[in-house]
Design goal:
Two copies of one chain form a homodimer. By secondary structure, chain A is an alpha/beta fold. In chain A, α9 runs antiparallel to α10. In chain A, about 30% of the residues lie in helices and about 15% in strands. Chain A is globular, with a radius of gyration of 20 Å. Chains A and B meet through α7 and α8 of A and α7 and α8 of B.
Amino acid sequence: MAGVAPTPLLKDELDIVIPTIRNLDFLEMWRPFFQPYHLIIVQDGDPSKTIKVPEGFDYELYNRNDINRILGPKASCISFKDSACRCFGYMVSKKKYVFTIDDDCFVAKDPSGKEINALKQHIENLLSPSTPYFFNTLYDPYREGADFVRGYPFSLREGAPTAVSHGLWLNIPDYDAPTQLVKPRERNTRYVDAVMTIPKGTLFPMCGMNLAFDRELIGPAMYFGLMGDGQPIGRYDDMWAGWCTKVICDHLGLGIKTGLPYIWHSKASNPFVNLKKEYKGIYWQEEIIPFFQQVVLPKECTTVQQCYLELSKQVKAKLSGVDPYFTKLADAMVTWIEAWDELNPSGAAAAAAPAKPNNGKA
Amino acid sequence: MAGVAPTPLLKDELDIVIPTIRNLDFLEMWRPFFQPYHLIIVQDGDPSKTIKVPEGFDYELYNRNDINRILGPKASCISFKDSACRCFGYMVSKKKYVFTIDDDCFVAKDPSGKEINALKQHIENLLSPSTPYFFNTLYDPYREGADFVRGYPFSLREGAPTAVSHGLWLNIPDYDAPTQLVKPRERNTRYVDAVMTIPKGTLFPMCGMNLAFDRELIGPAMYFGLMGDGQPIGRYDDMWAGWCTKVICDHLGLGIKTGLPYIWHSKASNPFVNLKKEYKGIYWQEEIIPFFQQVVLPKECTTVQQCYLELSKQVKAKLSGVDPYFTKLADAMVTWIEAWDELNPSGAAAAAAPAKPNNGKA
C-alpha cells in the first residue's frame, strides 16, 4: 500500500466497523479516505458465504461462526440477521476510536461539489470538546470561524470530552416505515453546515449508519441490543444504543455531537419489511422514552460498565411490564458487559492478544 | 401606501419594534419587506432630538418623554441610554406578534445570492410548532423536505406552540467584549441552513438584535431589565430576557427556535466600551446561570405574569447576595408586570385605547 502524505488522522487509533451481508464494492468509492485505516467487517447471515473485500484494504472479518467461537455462550447477546451484529466489532476492536458505516452509504458532496471525507470530520468532532451544558447559538464554538457568543458563561467554555459523533445522510433520509410509506419520494437535499452538541438531559434518535465514538470513553454503552432473528423487533438497535449512551454520557459528563459529516445514503429499505420490524418498537418507544427521560444513575456509578449494569437493572424493573422482551434484553445487556470485559481485560487493551479473526491483512 | 400582492403574512397582527438614537436610514434596505407592517420606534437618549423615518412607513414613535408620560412612576422599569428600552415597544404594541431588530442590521443574502426576507422566516418559525422534548437530528421537522426521523416518538410529533424565534447574524458575530478583543477580525461567514428548537431544560444566550416572538404567549416575560444610565451593567438586557423567557417557556410548555433567518450585522460595537458595560455581567453570570438552571416554578403559575412574578421573588431571594443590583432588578420586574397589565388590561387587548404615541401614520 502506497504511503499517503500527510499521515491520516488517528491512523493507528481508529477501526472502521462495517456490518454486511454482501461484497464490499462500496469501499471502492471510499478508498481515498478509508484505505489507510483498519477495517473490522462483521458478516451477518450465512457464514458459509464469502464476502469479497476490494484489494488493498487492511481488514479482519468475523462471521457468525467466529462470533460463536470467540464468545461461546455469551454470543447470545450478539444479534443475528440484523445489522445490530455490528457491535461485536466494537467489542473486538483494540483501538481508541471506532467509526461505523453501512454498506449502502457512499461519499457525499458538499454544496461546492467537493467530496466529503466523512471520517476526517468525525475525527475532528471527536477530538474537540462538546458543550452539553449551555446552547451556543453559533453551533460548534470550536470550529474555525466560530466561537462562543455573548452571554455564554466563561466557566463552561472548556466544554466536555466528546464521546460520540453522529453524522447525517443526504439523499435517503433515515425515516421510519410509516413516514417512508407516506413520503416515498422525499429526499434530503439540505446540507446544513453545522455540528452541534445535544444538550444534557435531551434524548435524540441515534442512527448507526454513519457514527463514530471514543471506545475508551463510551464503548461498553454502544450495545445494539437484541434484534433480528428470533427477536420481536428490528431497526431499534441504534436507537437503543443511543438512548443508553445518552443517559450515560449525561451522567459521566461526556458530550455527544450531531450534524456534519454527511454521507450519501443510496437506497431506501423496503417500508413494508421495515414496518414489520418496527411496529412493536413504535408502540414500545412511547414508554421507553419516558423511561430514559427519568433515568437517574447513582453517583457511585463512575465507569461506563457500572452505569450500564445499573441501567440494565432499571430496564428489567421498569420495562419488563411493557413486554417480556425487556427482561431478555436486560439480561443480554449484562452478558454484553461480561463479554466486553472478557475481551477488554484492562482499560488500555492495546497489548491484549487479538481475537483471532477469520482473515488477515489483505 | 400601495397594496402588495400577495398580502404579506400577518400584516395586521405584527409590529416591528426598533430602538434607536439615529435616523432610520437602514429602513431603506428593508423597505420591500417591512413597509407593509406597522413600526414601533423607541427613541433612546435625548428626547428633543428628531429621528427621521424614511417616507412611506407606517409608524408610531416614543421618546423618553412619552415613556414617562404614559407610564408615570412605573417608567422607572424602562432602561434609558440602552437598547433595553426597546421592551417598552413590546408593552405598547397591540398586536399578537412582535419582531425586533437593531438599526445596524441589514438584509443578508443566502448562499445563492438571494436577499433574505428575515421577517417572513421569523413568521414561518412562529407559525409552526417547536420540538422541545426530543431532539430531531434533521432539525426542524416541519420545514419543507424534512420530517421526524426514525426513532422520534409519534406522541411528540405534534410539537409545542412556538413562542420565540431567535434569528442569527452574518458578518459581525454577537461576541462579548473579551472575544471581540481577542478576535477583532473574526466574521461570521457560515450560513447554516437550519432552524431548531432549543431543548427543554437548556438555556441559551438570546440576542435581541433579530428576534421575534408571540406577545400573547410570552410577551410579559420579554422584559429587558435595568441597563444603561444609572445601572451597573449593560449588554445583558437580551440575555436576561432570554433566561427568564426560557425557564417560563419550559414551564408553560412553549417552544423557542433558533437559527434562520440571518440578518447582516454591519458594525462591531467598541470592545472597550463593551467591556466596561459587560464586566460585572461576565462575573455575575457565573452565578446567574446556575440560578436559572435550577429555577422551579410552582404548578400554580399558569400565566406568564404569574411565572414572572414568582421568578422576581426567586431573583430577589437568591441573587441579591450576588449584588444589591438584583434587589432593584427584582423590584423592576414587578413594576414591569404592573405596567404591562395596565397597558394590556385583557389578554386580547386589540380593542384597548392606543397609548397615544408622539407621531402617527407617515
